[in-house]
Amino acid sequence: MTQALKGVRILDFTHVQSGPTCTQLLAWFGADVIKVERPGVGDITRGQLQDIPKVDSLYFTMLNHNKRSITLDTKNPTGKEVLTRLIEECDVLVENFGPGVLDRMGFPWEKIHAINPRMIVASIKGFGPGPYEDCKVYENVAQCTGGSASTTGFRDGVPLVTGAQIGDSGTGLHLALGIVAALFQRTMTGQGQKVTCAMQDGVLNLCRVKLRDQQRLDHGPLKEYSQYGEGVPFGDAVPRAANDSGGGQPGRILKCKGWESDPNAYIYFITQAPVWEPICDIIGEPTWKSDPDYATPAVRLPKLNAIFARIEQWTMTKTKFEAMEILNKYDIPCGPILSMKEIAEDQSLRATGTVVEVDHPTRGKYLSVGNPIKLSASPTDVVRSPLLGEHTEEVLRKVLNFSDEKLAAIKASGAIGQAPAAAAE
Ligand code: COA
Hints:
Number of domains: 2
CATH topology of the largest domain: Rossmann fold
Strand order of the largest sheet: 3-2-1-4-5-6
Radius of gyration: 26 Å
Shape: elongated
Bound molecules: coenzyme A
Largest sheet: 6 strands, parallel
Strand content: 5-15%
CATH architecture of the largest domain: 3-Layer(aba) Sandwich
Distance between the termini: 52 Å
Number of helices: 19
CATH class of the largest domain: Alpha Beta
Number of strands: 11
């Protein structure tokens, strides 16, 4: 079976997490992703958070599957010649360098477009044009500037960042969509274009419901927020709402049996209006079904704390999995709080390829998250990440058609990592 992006060649200048997430997705859909790394150094994450000395870190391996790695010094004159040839042969250049790096390398958009008018140049930066456009950005900075941190956490606590990497991986996902859209447009125009995604914008897009609530505040209190029922007045900005549901159906995280010793013995419980009656029966409050103080969503809003406290009395008598089983019979939306250990051991996630075991030549076997996007006619086979420069010769010979002599000259120049003899002395 062929793959959706077969025939698309990506020149991958990404590093750390945001860009690599994007190019890994493209590789999983079948694109030939050629990752360009600095000779002798490589993507900085190869050596970060290492659990096994001198072995590519899980940080790196889990973000760079299905790619080829070449080493190339793009500041070396011969390296620039090789890069020019790569631009001619590839469809998309993806980068998440700091602001201005590509220009300083001598490859601004205008030059790339002149070399290969069909090339799409896709970039992630921390911020879009404006006062912060020159700033370097990492995950948590984006979470803070994109509206996530100010709306995450408890009302009386400090702003919180979330473990989900919405700034890095989230923006990588956004960029991948932009690239695929630009590739589609190219089939009609024959022209490449610039695709940019700022991490602040990507996070804000994921915090869309909070900008919704900011505007709703102009028209009165946010009645589905716990603080409404607690009688705490709202200020002029969307507050942190702890585990309140972000939607129109109130929800909370509730304790389950074993919570005293198990930090993850909890369930998320949503009191969706259409299943209010079965909820009342299950928790042992059948009169709430017709009681005018409880029967409609609107009258329940000021009493959510008391209602969830009553539901919790019931959930505390069940394990999170027992509660899930009982509630699902009545289509009551809920979900156990799963630890990473439980997810790693979940056989159904293994069966779908969402969690995969990968073998690596120096690390051995490890677990990774496979492709979460399933295409029925483009299956994903997760292939281990490349070693630094593993495919340099292969790419130079087979993609760029360089001869033995040309390859020897490039090696002698130091552009792919081997120091010239004179310099080595
Ligand atoms: N050959 C030669 N030089 C190379 C090279 C190669 N193959 N690859 C990179 N370099 C050089 C660049 O030219 C640059 O040099 P310069 O500053 O002299 O122009 C240098 O490496 C560093 O690039 P930079 O991207 O600024 O790295 P950094 O480690 O200083 O900063 C980030 C890291 C992530 C903060 C920064 O890249 C950034 O803000 N990226 C955009 C936002 C982003 O994606 N952030 C999240 C990352 S998960």
